[in-house]
Design goal:
Oligomer: single chain
Number of strands: 2
CATH class: Mainly Alpha
Shape: globular
Strand content: under 5%
Distance between the termini: 47 Å
Structural class: mainly alpha
Length: 568
């Protein structure tokens, strides 16, 4: 059963007056508060009270809470999407990557995590505005604003990458419970059943409360790190001063790229935007959701740093090549630090795998609902949104079954996920940047110039890392350090030249319209059918098709490489 995009007279929208018209006219006529104005929601369940795990905000509240206690209660009610998307990023692949960084290079790579904090916050803050202001998921916006070709190009990549990522989460489940002697043929089906039971309850609040249980379990890394007796001075020193134990070797550079790829992932963009919409967060509550995301960014980095410290001090830097997998790390910690340490690491791995599988699969199901116009809300029962929940169930069941196949190339799948994530992330961020500069979509909430400058640098760096990862995956003998230096030097020249050109032509940029704070807080995107599709310049078309051509070629080459590896 489908929920077509609401139109002006749609009775499902909680409105008492007609839609204010296209975005350009809406600025002049004045918009009603977002709690009563028509929104481009694709599912009527996305309109109503905010029902969070830790509180409720009624739909008629205007977001002007006074006093510390009132604001804290509002934050607790709204918190969730930002915290979940960040903690979910410390998934099975993340635990393995951080454990490898600590075991092979000590704490010398902690500075990488610090640099990723602004990347996480800037990327996800743009997603916050898109979700709260538009009421439409990321996949649907790309499809409607840029056309079906780009919509399917973006979502097709997402489905492939997300599915392989979910497989790695169940690999983590099998390794974690295997530490306790539980067969994967029992562990994986139980994990699949648990994830389905949590998700299909028909209650957003109940689902979010289960996610908070996983978030709380994530903090088990703190006592685990204490058991490793870390040197605080060494941790602080390597957090503040970049350096690599043993020098910038090819293995070290690739591991840094892996840390970036596992910490900043494309599925995060799709998940948080749709989860914000499903939670019914509107522009009046954006600042609270920003706080939620900032808190989540620091939580995920602290957790990642603790995991690096555990293996750095618990196993001592053994040098590149000594890391096997997360299961072997649990046994090694038990041997060096005692059975309690090994058990805690296994529980951390299990928890990371479950929350990662829950978030990545839900991001995929949200996108599935966006693309095919299906009801897709955790507020709905299975009977009301059967196809949405069926897609979730099918994904986790199929991914889990692959892990159970005897002789399945699980190590190859894990490597492929990191490579694909590195390849696809720049394009996902480019679409995000384009949407956040679309005035028809975001009105007064479009990016400020400094955000565009920072985001452009982020996209450029991610693209260079993507190119390095693809080249080194296909040609392992390449000198990674020299390649990275050459590419980043070229990037610095391009960005510097672009900056000079913009300074010389800054007068040609049209001034931003003046908006009052109340107008900003009450502005929401009209139904998509009322918006004119943006017209791309020739230069932008050339750039986008060049990027898509690179992605197609890179993915095909990675597939060929994977087939070669699978065939020995």
């Amino acid at each position: 059963m489908t929920d077509p995009t609401p139109t002006r007279g749609d009775p499902r929208i909680a409105s008492q007056e007609p839609a204010p018209g296209p975005a350009a006219a809406r600025r002049e006529t004045g918009a009603a508060p977002d709690e009563v104005a028509p929104r481009a929601v694709l599912d009527s369940a996305h309109v109503g009270d905010i029902q969070g795990a830790l509180g409720t905000i009624r739909v008629h509240e205007l977001g002007q809470r006074r006093g510390l206690r009132a604001r804290l209660l509002a934050l607790l009610a709204i918190m969730g999407p930002g915290l979940i998307v960040m903690v979910g990023d410390n998934d099975a692949g993340g635990v393995s990557t951080y454990a490898q960084a600590g075991q092979d290079y000590g704490v010398s790579l902690l500075w990488v995590l610090v640099l990723l904090i602004p990347v996480l916050i800037v990327n996800q803050e743009m997603v916050i505005r898109l979700g709260a202001v538009t009421g439409v998921g990321h996949a649907k916006l790309i499809n409607e604003r840029f056309g079906r070709f780009w919509g399917w190009f973006s979502v097709g990549d997402l489905f492939l990458l997300n599915f392989l990522t979910i497989v790695t989460e169940f690999i983590g489940v099998s390794l974690a419970l295997g530490y306790f002697g539980i067969s994967k043929y029992l562990a994986v089906p139980i994990a699949v059943a648990l994830l389905v039971a949590i998700t299909v309850s028909g209650s957003f609040r109940q689902w979010e409360r289960f996610m908070y249980v996983f978030i709380a379990a994530n903090f088990l890394v703190i006592p685990l790190a204490i058991l490793a007796h870390p040197s605080v001075g060494s941790v602080v020193s390597h957090t503040l001063s970049p350096g690599i134990r043993g020098g910038a070797t090819s293995q070290a550079v690739l591991l840094i790229i892996a840390i970036v790829g596992t910490t900043v992932a494309p599925w995060q963009l799709f998940f948080q935007q749709s989860n914000i919409i499903d939670k019914r967060i509107t522009p009046r509550w954006i600042n609270y959701e920003r706080a939620d995301t900032v808190i989540g960014a620091f939580v995920v980095v602290i957790g990642a740093a603790a995991l690096i410290a555990v293996t750095a001090f618990g196993l001592a830097p053994a040098g590149p090549g000594h890391f096997v997998d997360a299961g072997a790390t649990a046994h090694a910690l038990a041997h060096r630090l005692g059975s309690a340490a090994g058990a805690m690491f296994a529980v951390v791995l299990l928890n990371a795998s479950l929350i990662g599988a829950a978030a990545v699969t839900l991001a995929t199901s949200y996108a599935f609902g966006d693309v095919f116009g299906l009801r897709h809300s955790l507020h709905r029962s299975f009977r009301e949104a059967g196809q949405f929940y069926a897609s979730f169930t099918a994904l986790v069941a199929l991914a889990g079954s692959i892990v159970l196949i005897p002789g399945a190339p699980l190590g190859l799948i894990t490597t492929a996920v990191q490579a694909l994530a590195g390849v696809l992330l720049p394009s996902a961020t480019v679409f995000l940047l384009l949407l956040c500069n679309d005035r028809e979509v975001l009105g007064p909430w479009v990016n400020r110039p400094w955000v565009n400058a920072v985001a452009t640098v982020i996209v450029s760096v991610l693209l260079v890392l993507s190119i390095v990862l693809v080249i080194t995956t296909l040609f392992p003998g390449v000198a990674v350090g020299q390649l990275a230096i050459v590419l980043f030097a070229a990037l610095a020249l391009v960005l510097g030249g672009s900056g000079v050109w913009l300074l010389l032509h800054r007068g040609a940029v049209p001034p931003r319209p003046a908006w009052t704070e109340e107008e900003r807080r009450s502005w929401t995107m009209p139904p998509l059918a009322l918006l004119d599709r943006p017209v791309w310049s020739v230069g932008r078309r050339v750039a986008m098709f060049s990027l898509s051509g690179y992605l197609v070629i890179a993915v095909l080459l990675l597939v060929v490489k994977a087939i070669q590896l699978a065939g020995g």
